[in-house]
Design goal:
By secondary structure, this protein is of the alpha/beta class. It has two domains: 142 residues, Rossmann fold, CATH 3.40.50.1000; 71 residues. The protein is 46% helix and 13% strand. It is built from ten helices and eight strands. The strands form two sheets. The chain has a six-stranded parallel beta sheet, sandwiched between helices. The protein has a two-stranded antiparallel sheet with strand order 2-3. Helix 9 links the parallel strand 6 and strand 7. Helix 4 runs parallel beside helix 6. The chain is globular. Pfam families: Hydrolase. It comes from Paenibacillus validus. GO terms for molecular function: phosphoglycolate phosphatase activity. This is HAD hydrolase-like protein.
Length: 227
């Protein structure tokens, strides 16, 4: 466990932490498989939604291995393209929702001088699209949206390490809902806040987090306790 000291920055996962991903991804997921079937790249019923939801927070290549393990790699890559396009189209139409309290809590953190960043295993355009179209962009550091898709990192540990080095951060909290977030935080000596409200995680995924919260706004009380 890592001691809870006052952070100069907070690093947030996106899906299942800031953004209620199912409100955007599920319509895009079904449309993706409709198109794959139309192109002759996939046959049969669309795999159950639990496979895509259970993969949130993983690298995309691992998600498709879980969703359609028998499909060739080029089918996985086409699915990447389709899902990204359909989600970005949805964001531009105003689809998708933040979790309760996210915008207000981030605003309060920013007002208290906390530098805000994202670190996601998603694609660059998706991560930046969520932040932009949900109106959160002014709250984050100007170059503070980090994604595996942009920096081609093989783990979130590496992604967070890169972020810390580039921005000269020594004390930060990692906030996320999956084991990869816990690993990324502790792998870089950070205090880890486990978000236990999304419902995507597997049993015991957040057991090693330093603290768990049932709503995003609880971060303010944690910060007060660190002061």
């Amino acid at each position: 466990m890592v001691h809870k000291s006052l952070p100069e920055a907070m690093i947030f996962d996106v899906d299942g932490t800031l953004f209620r991903t199912e409100t955007l991804i599920l319509p895009a997921y079904h449309a993706t498989f409709d198109q794959l079937r139309a192109e002759g790249l996939f046959h049969g019923e669309t795999p159950p939604e639990r496979y895509i939801l259970g993969g949130l927070g993983m690298l995309l290549e691992h998600i498709w291995e879980q969703v359609m393990p028998e499909a060739d790699r080029h089918v996985h890559r086409r699915a990447d393209e389709l899902l990204l396009k359909l989600q970005l189209d949805g964001l531009r139409r105003g689809e998708g929702e933040l979790y309760a309290g996210v915008a207000d809590t981030l605003q309060r953190l920013r007002e208290r001088g906390i530098r805000l960043f994202t670190a996601s295993n998603g694609l660059e355009a998706y991560v930046k699209g969520v932040v932009k179209h949900q109106g959160l962009e002014p709250l984050f550091e100007p170059t503070g949206m980090y994604s595996a898709g942009e920096f081609h990192t093989r783990s979130k540990v590496d992604l967070v390490r890169l972020l810390l080095e580039r921005h000269g951060i020594r004390r930060a909290w990692m906030v996320g809902d999956r084991s990869s977030d816990v690993e990324a935080g502790h792998g870089n000596g950070l205090y880890v806040v486990g978000c236990d409200y999304a419902g995507y995680r597997k049993p015991k995924e957040l057991d090693e987090a330093d603290v768990r919260i049932g709503s995003f706004s609880e971060i303010i009380a944690l910060l007060d306790g660190a002061e």
